[in-house]
């Protein structure tokens, strides 16, 4: 059975300035042992999506369906979702320094989750905390369990955050920019750790990032988000080999490549991400789209385009894509 | 930790010394003549000169200051010959007015001021913090709006207004309570309570309003912290998320503010004490002012500074105890 | 810190974007002003402040219309047989005395409230100005130059804040006998008021100093004075405005409290604190005498608090706290 199936997910917030449609109609699935990468700029809706799956939005209108291991989470009683949170779906947040509580020791914070879900004794939970800290490669875990987050280095703190997520042996981990705040070498270590844990335990992983380098390293499937909806969706190798959406191509062009000649210049995507409050009509990307700039196609400013199949397991939302069967 | 404490205590001592010097300079440089004050109304010039010598007022200011400071700890003998009076530690001199040791005068009045301050603090904490937390958790609802409107109005009310309204309603109109007078707790606990209810309420209303607003903002800010989201993501029940992960950091600044406010109030709530004629340190201060009783004014200024400076230290220590990040000495 | 969800302007090539038509590039000040104008509480506060400032300024005109000066005694308006209580109901409100009269002397309350407003607002505004000048100067100096300068100024602020300020103010005011009370009061209030704003300004300057554009200006060899004037101060203006507005109610209250305790403005100069002190004795028999100055005090303090709170929300949404 599919581990996580998200269908037509939408998230709206009411603000003083009006309704913000942060996510509109996103679909994806995650299988056990596989990694889905969600990529996009800030404001593309990728983090909002992950929090919606976890049921962590307060005061937002959430529509569509999120099925986890056969259980529908949208509209489910809070208690049902809470028992899944941390236990079967765990989350790794971006900045571990602010995401871990400054007043409690790392060991206590891990033990707390374990006790909550397993009803373990204080001592057993403590032992569990030390064990998972060891599993994620923290040296002297017994001593470090008694330290506070601010006493850890950035990389060690992120490992501790992963240990917290692993403590209850979840089936799915949602990692929201887990390596953004880290040095490149530490970043590689943390990603390798996640991949190793995935192989050992058959975890499903949702990796949310703005960094295509991270996606290339870990993802099996990729969902590219723009302005709250999906722009392109494909297996990772196919996406990198044959990017079809102008936005995806723009993202790839703005990435430095070792195999490119010196003559290839890096190109940034002009303009800035769209306002979610008053998004552009039609395709959210058209104001920045080089194709639209060359030729103003009325299709681009009509309805917001949905994903269409453009190849084997390859979906694209660009209305100008010639579908090749 | 020990080193930190020692450094803080040293800084505290220096601060108190500076305050002491400034207070001293102001009082002894200014025109009114302490000797004439001490001597009384119908005093001949010779007698005033005698008193001046006895009090050592002809010595240079620095010598007098040194004597005052050393005297506080080592005690000193005031006057000479048959008039000599031995004043032991802690010696703040004698009142010009009543000829009693200043220290004894202050200590007589301290329980009253402390009763007023601590009782009021309990009241405003209960009211203010619970209203603030409630408003934050029900943010944007009518509960929140009611709390915000009420507190902003109450915090603008002058303290005399609250006191007079209370007196008018409780004593004059309904006669629920007698006009308050201070009764020592040991004497009659019930009477102590009944007579302090109005002064407590008066003092607590303003502070409760301030605390409610501050608590509300602090709780709202803390509940938006990423670590609270992490606690939810761990699957903890909401009760625990708010209670353990949210409220603890949210209430830390409230504890800090409480320390400061209590430190400021222990040496007397001037207006409240004089409104209700409570014989506290504040009332003693007001009375001494009218009679230009300088040793008492001096002593109370120092006592008040001592309370403020030491409450700063206590606040920092408590902060370090609550928040491990503040433990870096 | 927070994810900029919808804060990014829809600029760029947003030709078809309906939002860009109306939203011309707005300066942060215009943005704050429009945010402020939408808040009813802030506008109410501003209206009350304007009302009282006008009343204070126009006091001579208004008393000329009412025909009663602040020091005119009117023995006919009080009943000498009843301990000098005002004749008539509600503290002697009549066509001659619009807001009644003081017991005993029969002075006109309307006139005294107006002239009292002059004193209360003059003291509060002048000390607020002084506090801002001293606080900003020392705060910016400490924050910008750091090192030893910062250590000395910060230590000084600590000492000042350890003073039992109310007690010390009273002591200071009580021993100085033959000086201009008004100036002394302003001086004393400023002396103990500046460290609070200086501390906030210091913190802000400290963080501004390490911003890229300040570093860049320094790397270009811009002089310290120029950086302070063109890069630092303009960025502090919001904070300064907010803190001054929030300091004023405290100053008005402090003036009233000191005068109430008998060490502030001396009679016969009318001030609200002194009217309240006089009226406390009569709270039972002549409540109006007590209620009127208290209500004025309440309204002005409330108005400044409302406006200050709204300004803080508008200029500084994060609510900078120390």
TrEMBL record, chain A:
SUPFAM superfamilies: P-loop containing nucleoside triphosphate hydrolases. InterPro entries: AAA+_ATPase (IPR003593), ABC_Ni/Peptide_Import (IPR050388), ABC_transporter-like_ATP-bd (IPR003439), ABC_transporter-like_CS (IPR017871), Oligopep_ABC_C (IPR013563), P-loop_NTPase (IPR027417). One of its GO terms (molecular function) is ATP binding. It is found in: Cell membrane. Pfam families: ABC_tran (PF00005), oligo_HPY (PF08352). Residues 4-252 form the ABC transporter domain. Belongs to the ABC transporter superfamily. This is Peptide/nickel transport system ATP-binding protein.
UniProtKB/TrEMBL annotation, chain B:
It is a multi-pass membrane protein. Its main location: membrane. It is found in: Cell membrane. Residues 110-319 form the ABC transmembrane type-1 domain. The chain crosses the membrane at residues 9-30, 114-137, 149-171, 191-212, 254-276, 296-322. The keyword Magnesium does not apply. Keywords: Cell membrane, Membrane, Transmembrane, Transmembrane helix, Transport. The keyword Lipoprotein does not apply. InterPro entries: BPD_transp_1_N (IPR045621), MetI-like (IPR000515), MetI-like_sf (IPR035906). It comes from the Bacteria. Belongs to the binding-protein-dependent transport system permease family. This is Peptide/nickel transport system permease protein.
From TrEMBL, chain C:
It is a multi-pass membrane protein. Keywords: Cell membrane, Membrane, Transmembrane, Transmembrane helix, Transport. It is found in: Cell membrane. Residues 117-308 form the ABC transmembrane type-1 domain. The keyword Lyase does not apply. Residues 1-22 are annotated as: Disordered. The keyword Transmembrane helix applies. Gene3D superfamilies: MetI-like. The chain crosses the membrane at residues 41-65, 119-144, 156-176, 182-201, 240-263, 288-311. SUPFAM superfamilies: MetI-like. It comes from the Bacteria. Belongs to the binding-protein-dependent transport system permease family. This is Peptide/nickel transport system permease protein. The lineage of its organism: Bacteria, Bacillati, Actinomycetota, Actinomycetes, Kitasatosporales.
